Amino acid sequence: MIFLENLTKGMKMNKQQGFTLIELIMVIVILGILAATALPRFINLQEDAKVASLEGMKGALISSASMIHATALIRNQASNATSTWLDVNNNGTRSRADGDVAVVYLYPTADANGLTNLVDFDGFTLSGTEFRLNGVNGCEVQYAHPTAAGNLPTYTIDKSNC
């Protein structure tokens, strides 16, 4: 018995320090799996930012068209199927250069006369009835004026090429 006690006293227990090779490989594999699942989400951030810009432009168009409609109602503008100028600044002249807006059924027309003075479209280009983000076709907000009295304008987001 004394022999065993002396034997165990002479032996020092070595404590393991650090990771074993297998543990290190497992950690690397787990981190790789997590990175592979998270990477697609980070890649879509740019597309999400573009779509958010389109949503912002749509909101600006809706607000501006509503303000023009309210102004036309207050000023007793006639609701016509043909384009007429709304004297927005009430200075007696009616033109796009003067900051006025062309309206159809009391909403801005879906052309440069109705849309140019409607919103500040920095970062967007106006192409017909479409506000294209950075001029890219398929990444745009489309506006259409009402087609009958009492109808509302339509706003469509095309994000097929964002």
Describe this entry's structure for a reader.
By secondary structure, this protein is an alpha+beta fold. The protein has one domain. Helix content is 41%, strand content 17%. It has 4 helices and 7 strands; from the N terminus they run αααβββαββββ. Strands 4-5-6-7 form a 4-stranded antiparallel beta sheet, with helices on one face. Strands 1-2-3 form a 3-stranded antiparallel beta sheet. The protein is rod-shaped, with a radius of gyration of 33 Å. The mean pLDDT is 85.
What general form does the structure show? rod-shaped
- Strand order, main sheet: write it out: 4-5-6-7
How many structural domains in the coordinates?
1
Strand content: 15-25%
Question: What is the N-to-C succession of helices and strands?
Answer: HHHEEEHEEEE
Name the poorly predicted regions: none
The secondary structure category is: alpha+beta
Oligomer: single chain
Distance between the termini: 82 Å
Question: How many beta strands in the DSSP annotation?
Answer: 7
**Main sheet: strands, sense, barrel:** 4 strands, antiparallel
Number of helices: 4
